[in-house]
Queue: 3 jobs
Job 1
Amino acid sequence: MTALATTLPAFFTDRLVLQRQVSPNTLCAYRDTLRLLLVFASDRKGNAPSKLDIDDLDASLVGAFLNDLEQQRKNSVRTRNARLAAIRSLFRYAALRHPEHAAAIERVLAIPPKRFERRLVTFLTEAEINALLAAPDRSNWTGRRDTALFSLAVQTGLRASELTGLCCADVHLGTGAHVSCNGKGRKQRITPLTSGTVAVLRSWLAERAGQPEAPLFTTQTGRGLSRDALEHRLAKYVGKATDVCPSLAQKSVTMHVLRHSAAMRLLRAGIDTSVIALWLGHEQIETTQIYLHADLEIKERALDKTAPIETKPGRFRPTDKLLAFLEAL
């Protein structure tokens, strides 16, 4: 067997599962990346994937694979960089087990992530949130479930995976009402609930009448909701809410946009970004800074507090021609 054929299984069982104890989502992402890479390399080299060696996956082939992701599969730069991170993780592990391939491994590890344009986050205004939450038909079971689901999402900012992973016992509606969840990176998080959300959830739990360990939000057949189901339901209600609030038509609303909306609500209420980072379960507070850039009102309030600089009028001096040329570039 080749060095790659023995290293790849050990990478998943030893490094990812035993040592790092990664989440199932991370495991699937790494699996998909390396499966795509092996199929691509097999086509290029004319060998079966099990016959490929580490030297076959050299820097030029990995670079061609990354270009293929963008050009042929139409992946975004973020996805391209995520695939590269998985490949580099495998090669760092291989460097410890097979120093004889150090030169090829080092060249792959030297491939840098690609820079990309960071766009401002999309979030909903209060009018848009109200229109969205009013869209479900509360006269039927599905509408009442979706009202509770999206009310909880907008108020807490839970991720889609965290929402679908909630069970009935995770909701505490007594004194100090809150919802607890296992978030990204297997971090346990507790998020307070407002009185309005408490009222909606109390009504839903009474109707749900599920066991403590049962999923909080289910299909009509009793199975837990999937992420695709959440996005499908959200798209339906956004289309309906657009008739009431036309500004929704200009936005691409996803479950993550509801998370952004929860963060912007807190920011506009004057909550410090360090508290918002804890609320959302961000690993680093720098991640939360994106909301400061997105909120024009905060920048306008800062501008209003800025006094104009008192300067004495002086004679105008034309800019040097050479400097003017450089400044115009």
Job 2
Amino acid sequence: MKTIGTFVLALVAVVTSAVEKPRLDVYPISADRAVVALINESPAKIEVSVKSGEGRIVYYKQSMQNTADYRKIYDFSALENGLYEISFKVNSTLVKRNIEIVNGSLKVGASELRFDPFFLVDGNMLKVSYLNFDQNNLKLIFMKDRNIVYEAALGKEFSTTKGFDISKLESGSYDVILADGSNDYRFTLEK
């Protein structure tokens, strides 16, 4: 129990100091256009996407160079009425905002941050920690050669920290997948 407690404290320290904390601003400048600005603490490659409410990607771009300051005017006039999500992926951090288009006007929602899970192999333990902002049902899957060798339901808690004994796994390469219902996060485990 003391080890898990220490791990949680270490994770909190890592999340508050080592992860990117980008700021995403969306400023409507007309009924169908907006300035989208991302400001990050340090230069990094970014991925930007706009998804429809059904999850269909309507725009995607990945930067070729590192940047700490991204600004662009987006024209949303070709999009139908509905809810959209604009998101930026910066290293292991995702920042997003909902945009609603209603009869040619833009409504911008609050900014939300999401962080990739943290995986750590410590001896014969795989430690996994994840901040489950959306409180989705989490599942952890170990796969070897495209076959599931172990699967565990992790629940819906906001702060999920689990340790898994990997001492009995055969030697080889495993894909460890943390699935939250919306995203699959992969970690390669070499045993």
Job 3
Amino acid sequence: MHDVAAIILGGGRGSRLYPLTKYRAKPALPLAGKYRLIDIPMSHCINSDVLKIYILTQFNSASLNNHIANTYHFSPFFKGFVQVLAAQQTPATPDWFQGTADAVRKILWVIAPVKVNDYLVLAGDHLYRMDYRKFIGHHRKTNADVTISAIPVNESKATNFGLVKIDRNGRVIDFKEKPKGDALRIMEVDVQTSGGTSNTTTNTPYLASMGIYVFRSKILHDLLARNLSHTDFGQDIIPSAIPDYNVQTYLFTSYWEDIGTIETFYRANLDLVKQPKPLFSFFDAEFPIYTHHRSLPPSKILNSHVEESMICDGCIVKSSSMRNSIIGIRSRLDNNCSLENTLVMGADYYQMDEERSADLSTGIPPLGIGEHTVIRNAIIDKNARIGKNVEIINKNGVQNLERDSAGYWIRNGITIIIKDAIIPDNTVI
């Protein structure tokens, strides 16, 4: 795979994930209490021996840039690299990135000197596990100019994706972005043509684009150069390529989740603790997920009840109970806390006992979750300070609410304590 370069798109605004994206890009979102979303495509590239990697950034990129710089260091004796390319204004391109394709177009002059046969274009906000060698191998076996990775979906999900229609040979003959009604029904395909089972064909007669592509190097340059108004791969570049180029599909039938909303982010995280076997697992010695090495101490769990949950490194949990929850790095739960269906992202730093005592003396809750606090169906963002006897239970069943000044939002019935928020003692949400 030394003749392949990966381009990871990490510059989206992530407005549907707000307030989690208030201070960070989507690919920098914490995942499973210790990873970040960008670790998924980065790890897959490393495991697939794709070691020429460009990461495109734009909005709120500081934490993403910092994570990449502190995590991924390749040996100077290999021909691999990780290069972050931020949106920039130049005399030729005075505007910021206008879409996925426009982002790649504007950095082609930077990556062109590195000669490769194929470009692997990836999203930075998906949760899945893929061996890109198989994807690229299929691309080359079919002599494709462009290959789209696609996943079978049913009708209820199909309207949320760009759909691919193929002929008997697996060649793409049509692509429509989020079709509905009659436009949706004409996109039905025989999934067995791409290698699906009969059961897959019956229940999921649509092929949804995963937003993951392989382009021949010259073809990508040609497609991006011939119409400068084409700013998006799904809406513009792929449909325009179908009449003139050999566009193929690669069928992917394993777990895949597009982390595009608060609800999908919350569900994808808590699905990790499902028993007996989660849909996605980090326990894979053959295809591991990498992240920043922090050298944290083991967690200390004192007189607590833990059920279907994960507790990450460096935590202190005292006489508390948790069910179907994730406790992120450096978290602290004081006596008699109760958590259910809750994602705690953890903290970026520790507080010494002296600092905690000083905060308490001035009426400020220290970092972590105070004693006798109850939390249900919530996301606790990093560095939150939650006081004693707090109830975060959405007792009125509110679906959507913005209380930025109070340190919390509610989205789709999920309570979100925002980053660095301070929730005073005895608060009820």
